[in-house]
């Protein structure tokens, strides 16, 4: 292992800071630990996160609670069919006195942006968001304005209602590092939700990490050691989505397209982020396996035959992870 004492201490401190943020979020949000951890992975890596789940599972509350636990600028945008690109990016205001234009910046000029029900907005709006997500900049008129780091888009969508929606194109969904499926709470968690229902209001959260703390935690990510065997394991997983027969998987008729090299990068960075959350200076195979479903489920495109059988990218990812040998 090639992690020095100073780097290990920096990783440990980053883990403690994020544990404090997680603890603060838990004051407002019952359960949903996996979702919160994936949001923190996005914060650490700078990778955008897409949350998918039926209404009422606290997706919006989770993002707002995370923002309240951090000293970062936060904006929520409710996506609707009549939304315009300028509603996100801002626009140029004409000054008749001197004939000049002044940039009025929109809600994208924040650190955390919640794109609520992202698939309800038309393609033009989604493409405006895409530039900000990919280039970390917004163009107003002839000028491009850089977005301040950290910049993170946390989007939500409803998987069951498709009337009046604009499904995300593959090119845009691929820009999201993680696609997190939010499930129902357990019985004990739901009982706690019921108990809290009598409260007049949610507890007021206190920021547990500053802007500098977040940037410092991000720097610690690069110090997490990734062994060559772990890298080979990641390459095996991604290769199996493209050439499943090489790994003893009979998935040719179910696969339309495998994962891109972006998946390889995100698997490693996501695994490093999980290690930081544990305060650990090295990546374990379990970290890769833990983050893989969220990285792969929207990057493995299935064939019509698979769709007819009710098999999706998540199911194929599960089969691949079961088959590929763990170091």
UniProtKB/TrEMBL annotation:
Superkingdom per UniProt: Bacteria
Gene3D superfamilies per record: Magnesium chelatase subunit I, C-Terminal domain, P-loop containing nucleotide triphosphate hydrolases
Keywords recorded for this protein, A-Z: ATP-binding, Nucleotide-binding
Domain ChlI/MoxR AAA lid residues, every copy: 254-318
Cited Pfam families: AAA_3 (PF07726), AAA_lid_2 (PF17863)
GO molecular function: ATP binding; ATP hydrolysis activity
Nucleotide-binding keyword on record: yes
Domain ATPase AAA-3: 48-178
PANTHER family associated with the record: MAGNESIUM-CHELATASE SUBUNIT CHLD, MOXR FAMILY PROTEIN
Entry's family note: Belongs to the MoxR family.
Protein name (database record): MoxR family ATPase
Lineage of source species: Bacteria, Candidatus Eiseniibacteriota
